[in-house]
Design goal:
Layout lengths: L1 H28 L5 H6 L32 H19 L15 E6 L7 E5 L5 E4 L4 E2 L4 E7 L2 E9 L5 E9 L4
Antiparallel strand pairs: 1-2, 2-3, 4-5, 5-6, 6-7
Length: 179
């Protein structure tokens, strides 16, 4: 019985105080004014305007036409260069299917060595088709040139552009698998 009366008293106390607090909050909320309205002189008669010595030091920030400060400029530059390379690649049609895949995805099947030193390599594309490659041919997405064929190795050099826009040579070596 004591517990029930204690709970009822607690509930009654919360109801009375919350009604009073809500009423006080509503009357105080009507007293709040926007500082921008006060600067422009848009105040009601009971409120006093802001003093002349209070002003905004900087104008409001307008983000239109400005770069996002939270995006890395290196990433933006890398994206722009990738888009330029993609557009150039679309404009240039691949003359052989060897120019439509990455050099790493080629599989070296065999090497035919001639007596005069001109070797020919046979590679397989990911779709299973085989092609003969000579020294000086262009292969890969980044216009790699076959520099040497021999001793179970096919060497391709590609000119790539790094993040900072510098052209660099990348050498890719494909080895003949011994099964």
């Amino acid at each position: 019985m004591k517990i029930v009366s204690l709970w009822l008293g607690l509930i009654l106390f919360v109801l009375v105080t919350s009604g009073f607090a809500a009423e006080t909050m509503l009357t105080n909320a009507s007293d709040v004014i926007n500082p921008l309205d006060a600067l422009e002189g848009n105040t009601t008669s009971s409120e006093q305007p802001m003093p002349d010595w209070i002003f905004f030091q900087y104008p409001p920030y307008e983000a239109t036409g400005k770069p996002d400060p939270f995006v890395s400029f290196i990433k933006v530059r890398e994206y722009e260069r990738m888009e330029e390379a993609r557009k150039a690649k679309k404009e240039k049609k691949a003359s052989t299917p060897l120019e439509t895949v990455e050099v790493h995805s080629l599989r070296l099947i065999g090497i035919i060595e001639n007596k005069d030193g001109n070797s020919v390599a046979m590679v397989e594309l990911p779709d299973g088709k085989g092609y003969l490659i000579h020294t000086g041919m262009v292969v890969g997405l980044y216009d790699g040139v076959v520099t040497s064929i021999g001793d179970g190795v096919l060497v391709v050099e590609e000119n790539i552009m790094d993040l900072f826009g510098e052209n660099k040579k990348r050498t890719i070596t494909l080895r003949l698998r011994q099964e």
